[in-house]
What we know:
The protein has helices at residues 20-33, 45-48, 55-71, 89-98, 103-107, 110-118, 125-140, 153-170, 215-223, 240-253, 257-263, 269-295, 298-327; strands at 7-13, 38-44, 80-83, 145-147, 178-180. It is mostly helical. The strands form 2 sheets. A 3-stranded parallel β-sheet has the order 1-2-3. Strands 4-5 form a two-stranded parallel ribbon.
Amino acid sequence: MEKDKKVIFSGIQASGLLTLGNYIGALRNWTKLQADYDCVFGIMDLHSITVRQDPAAFRKRSLEILTLYIASGIDCERNILFFQSHVPAHAELAWTLGCYAYMGELSRMTQFKDKSARHAENINSGLFTYPVLMAADILLYQADLVPVGMDQKQHLELSRDLALRFNGIYGDVFTVPEAYIGKVGARIMSLQEPTRKMSKSDENPNGYIAMLDDPDTILRKIKRAVTDSGGEVAYREGKDGVNNLLGIYCAVTDTTIEQAERAFEGKGYGDFKAAVGEAVVECLRPVQERYRDLSNNKDYVESVYRAGAERAGRTAAKTLRKVYRKIGFTDR
Length: 332
Ligand code: TYM
């Protein structure tokens, strides 16, 4: 990959079904940005094993996510789509960067604190060094921009710190990446507990919309979404449920909060929820249709990730060679 265009790197863990949060916060922005950048999108399967995975379900889900990337409209001819575990340089650079990351800064990561609280029986060292692997992902491709949802902002800052620290010692080795966080939809909340983010690991499926939920399920989940005892469709402090639904509506219809508030003036929550549900169904419909077509074409999907691993591997190996040389490892 020659750098005539700026480079984007992003990825999603393969730890559960993709949700509307992943779609609005990440995937959809990727499809919008791809025209102007050289893009590398990974299925971050190495990250997924910080939590125990059932092998058969994990394998199936990883492929499902790759298929959803393509179905969402990522152009896999122009961009690189690959599985992180297919490119060994990720694990190699992660080890290297781990020797430049401090215990203190990793202990401050809120995702580590949350996950260790939720998986108290399995606080493994991978959970702790998770953000270092993420920095390796990004820095290997000399990415300029990393489109993510708000929850990844802190990890991105650590990636920048590590890049700057390394460059400070060895000269210009890494591009220092910037986070790209969309204006709307950077934090889609749970439909049942609107003060928590919508998450694929939520035990209550009514809290999230999976990208592959059928239309009836989507309409039902939104109808059941928690709101408040008021009746005004307005974006206000304390109206977390309504604010979240408004955010979802605006993201999927490309409208502003003000436009949406005007559109629902004088309408009750029932009408509002029905409209949000319809808008989400319409937004996901073409993606789901393409997903079904692609699922019947396994050879094609396989050819995409095989070619992706090869191209990603070349770029990643080049950066890793440079890093190793700077550190002083003996040339092969
Ligand atoms: P992950 O798999 O949790 O989420 C993938 C992407 O989806 C966004 N996202 C959301 N956006 C808005 N609202 C939500 N409720 C919501 N839930 C998730 C996330 O912000 C993210 O952009 N560590 C990363 C995966 C990763 C990565 C990377 C990302 C590994 N290496 C390198 C970028 C670059 C993660 O767990 O995301």
